[in-house]
Design goal:
This protein has about 375 residues and is α/β, with parallel strands linked by helices. The chain is built from 13 helices and 10 strands. Helix 5 links the parallel strand 4 and strand 5. The protein binds pyridoxal-5'-phosphate (PLP).
Amino acid sequence: MTIRAYHRDRGDARRTVVLIPSSAHGTNPASATMAGLKVAVTACDAHGYVDLADLRAKAGQYRDTLAALMVTYPSTHGVFEEDIREICDIVHEHGGQVYMDGANMNAQVGLTSPAAIGADVCHLNLHKTFAIPHGGGGPGMGPIAVAAHLAPYLPGHPAVRVGGEKAIPAISAAPWGSASILLISYGYVRMLGAGGLTDATRYAILNANYIKARLAGHYDELYANHNGRVAHEMIFDLRPFKHGTGPSVDEQDVAKRLMDYGFHAPTVSFPVAGTMMIEPTESEAKDELDRFCDALIAIRGEIQAVMDGRVDARDNVLKNAPHTAEEVSGNVWTHSYTREQAAYPLPFVRANKVWPAVGRIDNPYGDRNLICACPPIEMYEELEAKT
Ligand SMILES: Cc1ncc(COP(=O)(O)O)c(C=O)c1O
């Protein structure tokens, strides 16, 4: 919306098209659409990079209406886009602004910056790079930072004077959003200092490349740069094990089986369906990274047993994962593998077993079929009558 206000103020109201590479997170087109802009998708090449020829062609096609490019750096494919400066230049040459998705900022802090690549706007996921709890614990917090020419358009607020001189209307009910949680990021930055923050970035990149090296030969990674390195995350391809007929293992089986080893699965099927994206971050100790790699290597062996037909194609540790305490300790055990294989596949699991609360559930079914969990009012009447 800040970019749109900038174009409008310059008499360029026709600039409403946002180019977004196909590797982008769904929040990018969603945000652009919510800001009243139109989305045009640009292609990626076989190495996962933005396809420069396609970008140039689309920028040319929309030269009179181009508002912005939304680009993630390093990309969601886990690589530092080597042509990132040229990408930004192409957009600027065609009158657009560059919005950098800061979701992967933990691979940049202290080493480089959005300004260094030529971005005009970036958001900082404070709930990722800057330590505010993510996910169920949220809420998230994503302030934008802008280059000087966009500062006048930063959002205002009707009650408290914030934002630029030509501020767009408030985008958040309170002038500084969920201000109280900003203290977490503030504390994190102050306590680590410049050196600590830069080390966190180095560890995030080192940890990812360590996992990549340990899993080499067990799983194929999808993308790496010309040195064979990744940024702070990488994608492993599980599609070779997925078959329509015959023995088959998919990303869901691996994700669920990881629970038996005591791990919450990494991201599955984003940004590429049928794959697993691993982002260790700076937070895990080497012991934990090693246990995680040991688990994935052991799971690779379990996959091979299915592929080779050495175990039953349907009744195996992967297809039945995760295994609950109730199932493993029950009097009835009908599987073709042992309880020990199910629940304690590696020695370290025994030392610190985390029991999954429920067995295998059908994720897409739950997503597609809304189930009302509100009991009828009569039930409360009955309860009241009983007490
Ligand atoms: C590149 C990218 N953009 C945006 C998002 C969405 O972030 P959030 O969880 O803060 O909505 C993600 C999520 O991981 C992401 O990877």
